[in-house]
Design goal:
six-stranded mixed beta sheet; eight-stranded mixed beta sheet; alpha/beta; 14 helices
Length: 495
């Protein structure tokens, strides 16, 4: 029975945010990986379940994940890398499955994923297959494809197909191990930098159709568009295309990747996010008369933003809008509310502690409506069954807003934080939350309309607002004169 190691270090790094230390990671070892992933529709859930179904001897190693945040401290990453690599080397493995992101950045290391896979290759040698799943918001280049036997990016945003990608990766590994199939991974970078957008946009529906047709070819295991992650200042960022094909002596993988990349480039002007200032979004919502969700795009903890921005919440309070809000990250205010107790009235300086860009603290009188622990399992189609722990929650009423204040940082995926805070969202005409896209998987079918607001923040719609000093090439739409050469699109190397 072939022994397959399972693990990874997973982080989406926003280099404009505060650094990430070892304490910010949830670290799972051995059977903790299997038990935490049981029944979860996640990458790990798919990897582990399918590995068992295929008859492999699964060997869970180490898996470390942190909520998206700033550049990872080097000593924290090195400690995790050395433990994972050491375990892999000592486990007498026949193959390795990884769950990695693609946008990890460490102090002095621009690509966590390349560095990790290079370290694994150095210790395990070239004969051990390494197959990995990826987030479509990874910033990747050909070197990662060369280090791995195959890569399988998630294809949808919101990422409701994580589990399927884990299954897909495990099946590919099975073919490599038992059928001795050799795969080639081609990665074509496209000079496009855009904010998180849903794959339900017509442009991406068309592109997914093209990828699906290509995947029907006998030798193609995977054809995917990766959107890239724009909230990073490293040399290699932006969109890309990944094609994994059985090696047959031709350049089919490279040629197909460039074909898809050309189709993506042709649709660049269709990739847009419509947004309003907070006051405009609230005005629209108050006039609608139905249940409206307002999402604060630019302070999305799922994109590494701090989660304590005050722009939208301040505007809701000022407008007197009857609404509920999930959630603002402020452990100090939670502790203050807990000390005062339910029913107390307290003077708060809520949020606005991390970065002046995200607005000043809200100085207000607040009623403590509830104190609860924010531990729950995700029911959204994205990450179903995953456990989220927001720490102690305080539910405060400020004016007409019932606001959830958390001790932990995660974006709002479904109504779990509201329920744990004692809030019934059906009783509010406006439901406000911090997220850019992933919330839509659960909220979109349950609300009349979604209105996006984009006040100043560290994950803005307009990606040109963030300073960039390390780009190695011009990127659309930051530069309008980008030269993505026609001959390169046709399959020739650029001059």
């Amino acid at each position: 029975m072939a022994r397959v190691g399972i693990g990874g270090i997973f982080h989406e790094t926003n280099t404009f945010a505060a650094p990430t230390g070892l304490a910010d990671f949830q670290i799972l070892r051995g059977v903790e990986i299997s038990s935490s992933s049981h029944g979860a529709r996640t990458y790990l859930g798919g990897l582990i379940e399918e590995t068992g179904a295929l008859g492999f001897d699964a060997v869970p190693l180490l898996y470390a994940e942190a909520t998206p945040s700033g550049t990872i401290r080097r000593e924290a990453y090195v400690a995790l890398r050395e433990e994972l690599v050491g375990q892999a080397a000592a486990s007498d493995l026949d193959a390795l499955l990884l769950s990695i992101h693609g946008a990890g950045v460490v102090e002095d290391i621009d690509s966590l994923e390349e560095d990790l896979c290079a370290a694994l290759r150095q210790r395990l040698g070239d004969k051990i297959p390494i197959v990995a799943t990826l987030d479509l918001h990874g910033n990747i280049r050909q070197r990662l494809g060369d280090l791995c036997s195959a890569l399988f990016p998630v294809r949808l945003n919101p990422h409701i197909d994580q589990y399927e990608r884990g299954v897909e990766a495990a099946r590919c590994l099975c073919e490599i191990v038992f059928s001795r199939t050799d795969f080639e991974t081609a990665i074509e970078q496209v000079p496009m930098l855009f904010p998180p957008v849903p794959t339900s946009l017509p442009a991406f529906v068309e592109l997914d159709g093209l990828c699906t047709e290509i995947e029907k070819q006998e030798d193609v295991a995977c054809a995917r568009v990766m959107h890239g992650f724009p909230y990073v200042d490293v040399p290699c960022i932006g969109a890309s295309v990944v094609v994994v094909a059985r090696r047959n002596g031709t350049d089919d993988a490279r040629r197909l990747a460039r074909r898809i990349a050309a189709a993506l480039w042709e649709r660049r002007d269709q990739i847009k996010v419509q947004s309003l200032p907070p006051e405009g979004a609230i005005q629209e919502a108050m006039q609608d008369g139905r249940t409206i969700v307002i999402n604060e795009f630019s302070d999305n903890t799922g994109a590494g933003s701090p989660g304590d921005g005050t722009h939208l919440l301040s505007a809701l309070i000022a407008a007197g809008a009857r609404s509920c809000f999930s959630h603002i990250f402020d452990p100090v205010t939670v502790a203050q509310a807990a000390a005062a107790g339910v029913g107390a009235r307290i003077k708060v300086h809520l949020g606005g502690h991390s970065d002046a860009l995200l607005g000043p603290p809200i100085k207000a009188d607040a009623e403590v409506l509830g104190l609860n622990h924010g531990l729950f399992r995700v029911k959204s189609p994205m990450g179903t069954g995953e456990t989220i722990d927001l720490g102690l929650l305080a539910t405060l009423r400020i004016g007409g807003v019932d606001v959830v204040v958390s001790s932990g940082r995660r974006q709002t995926l479904d109504d779990g934080p509201f329920i744990k805070a004692g809030i019934d969202i059906t009783q509010f005409p406006i439901v406000a939350l911090k997220s850019s896209q992933h919330f839509k998987a659960w909220f979109e079918p349950r609300c009349a309309r979604i209105v996006t607001t984009d006040p100043p923040g560290l994950s803005p719609v307009d990606v040109s607002k963030l300073p960039r000093r390390r780009l190695q090439r011009s990127m659309w739409p930051i530069s309008t004169d980008v030269n993505y050469r026609a001959e390169h699109q046709a399959g020739q190397e650029p001059a």
